[in-house]
Amino acid sequence: MAITARPRFTSAQVTGFYFQPCRDDFDEIILEYFRCRCGTVRKQTRRNGRANLMQHVRHEHHNFEAEMLEATTSETGSLLSYVSRSSQNLYGWLMWVVTSNLPLTFCENRATRRYTTLEKAVLQPFAASAAAAPESDDEESSSFVERLQKRRKPAQQEQKYVLIRSIPPTSNIVERFF
Questions:
Q1: pLDDT confidence tier of residue 77, bands split at 50, 70 and 90
Q2: Cα dist from 142 to 125, 147, 149, whole Å
Q3: Of the candidates 19, 40, 39, which has an alpha carbon nearest to the alpha carbon of residue 29?
Q4: Does pTM top 0.70 for this prediction?
Q5: What is the DSSP annotation of 70-98?
Q6: Contacts of 82 (CB under 8 A, 6+ apart)
Q7: Of the candidates 20, 166, 157, 152, which has an alpha carbon nearest to the alpha carbon of residue 81?
Q8: Integer angstrom CA distances of residue 140 from 8, 110, 130, 131, 152
Q9: Which parts of the sequence are annotated with region: Disordered (predicted)?
Q10: Exposed/middle/buried for 173, CB within 10 Å: 0-12, 13-18, 19+?
Q11: Residue 19 bridge partners (DSSP)
């Protein structure tokens, strides 16, 4: 009876390293389909678990353990391939708030959360249609959105310095801020 060597990585780690969930046009995850690093799309069913994905890795990526060992040290230098997407998003938000010196309530703002999820690919059709539209000066031919933008009042911006109201406006201290 021969003793087989215990695998260094679990099937969850291997499939997490090689496969990412497929996404539709609205950037929503398609639950059953996963895309390998080599571009192959595989279906993962509930009854089979990760067996279908592991079968692909074993047949197409013969030295997957060596690749994973190299990737964690030299290629990425971190364990980001093993970190969940929600944890990566949370870390990104924290880095953004801390490095930009924003208030913590910035993350709770509905508009911020809504518009930060948009990707450039989603916004490209709007940019293309805006660039292709002829500019006209008459009020009747302008679009509804353009007319609203002309009429809207700019929102009051939050003051960057909290204690600016305590400094008199004629003071030289105020001039240093500008």
A1: very low
A2: 19, 7, 11
A3: 19
A4: no
A5: HIIIIISSSSGGGS-HHHHHHHHHHHHHH
A6: 13, 16, 17
A7: 20
A8: 69, 33, 17, 20, 18
A9: 131-158
A10: exposed
A11: 36
